[in-house]
Structures are given as structure tokens and as C-alpha cells.
């Protein structure tokens, strides 16, 4: 029964792994719900900020803020948002593939590309790639705050103000639903111009201090808030991907346990049959 003992040990090992993956699935589900709640809670503030920004911009078109300036692109940067840990399926791989594809596209067009990274996985990947990383935050943590990411955002915003960068792109995993997370790339700077109908009521605010100062502060805060919202959304995507991956691992462990139990029963039955045959043979010889 040496083979049977070996199979029993494998069954116990897989059962222990199954308990771990099931626990990780439940933890990821709880964290995903909390991340979704945070994501929903930040949207009204971001939408209000955008509405005020667009209204001031439309009411004072003569003011040209540096963050709204569109220039020919000679140098650009990509801000890559990844997770701190793995076991999340292809989440980080897809994000990094999109980022590297954008850098290669810029290189072919003669544009000098730089990288800023949020998250351990992205930082480790671009360190191995020896890419020009201008700023990074690793690890992000389970509850990243606006204050924690301001340093990285400030490096990029200051570079754009000083015309050391002409475009900044944002790469992250967009949360579609629990089963779908899509790696996307979006422009962070320059900021888009307001639409034609944002100031249709033809009224304006009373500003203290001047409208230009208010707009400057709001534009900077808008960039910081947008990056923070993307980080929270990427966190929700990470937990959803991990929950799905751990559920698949748990199901695979269950199927493997069933196969091992079947193999154990076959080995046990073969050993019993062999023992009976030996007893019968011995009795016949006597």
C-alpha cells in the first residue's frame, strides 16, 4: 500500500491548498466590495470638480493654463497603475503589455518616453526592463490615500508645467464588472477643453481670490483626484480578478481531489484483489 499512502498524502496536501484558496477568495470578495464602495463614494466629488473646472474655463476663455496647453509631442510619460501582489490572473500582465506597447509606439515615432509607476508589480517589472522611471510609489497598500500618491503626481505635473513633458498617459485596469477587467490607456495631460454647452446658463461665480487662481488650484486637484480614482478602480479590479482566480483554483483543487480519491480507491481495490489471489493460491497449494 505504498502507492495508496502516497496518494493519501497528496489528497491531504491538495485539501490544505483548497482551504487556503477558498479563504483567499472570500477575503478578495470582501475587499472588492469595499473598493467598489470607495469608488462610488469618490465619483460625486470628482464630477463636481469637473463641472466647476469646465464652467470656469468656459467663462474665462482668455486664461490659458499650462495644464491645458497642447504642444507638439517630443517627450511623453506613461503613469502605470498595477497591484502590489500577484495571484490576480492576467491583470498586471495586461496592464504592463499596454504600457510597453505605448512606449514602443512612441519610440518608433521618435518620441522620448518615460515611466512613472504605482504598485510593486509595475516597479519590479520596469526595474528589470531598465526603463527610465522618473517616479514611483511601491507598495501602494490596501487603502491608498490621496496624500500617498500626491508625490508621484506632482513630479509629472511639474514636468508638464515646465514643458519637460508634452503628454502624460495613464494606464490601468478598468473595472467593468466582477468577471471583466480591461487594461486601458487614457490621456491625463493635457486636460481636455470644455464642451460647447457647459456654460449654457450664462452665469458665473464670484471668486475669491481671482478666477485664474481658483482655476489653477482646481486643475491641479482634478489631476490628483483623477489619479486617485483610477488607483481605487484598479484596486477593485485587482480584488475581482483575485476572487475569480482563487475560485478557479478552488474548483480545480476539488476536481484534483476527486481524481486522486478515484486513483486511491483503484489502488486499494487492486491491493485487496492481489491479497485475495495470494490467499487462494496458498490454500490451493496446501
From TrEMBL:
<keyword id="KW-0406">Ion transport</keyword>
<keyword id="KW-0472">Membrane</keyword>
<comment type="similarity">
    <text>Belongs to the ATPase gamma chain family.</text>
</comment>
<keyword id="KW-0066">ATP synthesis</keyword>
<dbReference type="GO" id="GO:0045259">
    <property type="term" value="C:proton-transporting ATP synthase complex"/>
</dbReference>
<dbReference type="GO" id="GO:0046933">
    <property type="term" value="F:proton-transporting ATP synthase activity, rotational mechanism"/>
</dbReference>
<keyword id="KW-0813">Transport</keyword>
<keyword id="KW-1003">Cell membrane</keyword>
<dbReference type="GO" id="GO:0016787">
    <property type="term" value="F:hydrolase activity"/>
</dbReference>
<keyword id="KW-0375">Hydrogen ion transport</keyword>
<dbReference type="InterPro" id="IPR035968">
    <property type="entry name" value="ATP_synth_F1_ATPase_gsu"/>
</dbReference>
<dbReference type="GO" id="GO:0042777">
    <property type="term" value="P:proton motive force-driven plasma membrane ATP synthesis"/>
</dbReference>
<dbReference type="Pfam" id="PF00231">
    <property type="entry name" value="ATP-synt"/>
</dbReference>
<dbReference type="GO" id="GO:0005886">
    <property type="term" value="C:plasma membrane"/>
</dbReference>
<dbReference type="InterPro" id="IPR000131">
    <property type="entry name" value="ATP_synth_F1_gsu"/>
</dbReference>
<dbReference type="InterPro" id="IPR023632">
    <property type="entry name" value="ATP_synth_F1_gsu_CS"/>
</dbReference>
<dbReference type="GO" id="GO:0005524">
    <property type="term" value="F:ATP binding"/>
</dbReference>
<comment type="function">
    <text>Produces ATP from ADP in the presence of a proton gradient across the membrane. The gamma chain is believed to be important in regulating ATPase activity and the flow of protons through the CF(0) complex.</text>
</comment>
<comment type="subunit">
    <text>F-type ATPases have 2 components, CF(1) - the catalytic core - and CF(0) - the membrane proton channel. CF(1) has five subunits: alpha(3), beta(3), gamma(1), delta(1), epsilon(1). CF(0) has three main subunits: a, b and c.</text>
</comment>
<keyword id="KW-0378">Hydrolase</keyword>
<keyword id="KW-0139">CF(1)</keyword>
<protein>
    <recommendedName>
        <fullName>ATP synthase gamma chain</fullName>
    </recommendedName>
</protein>
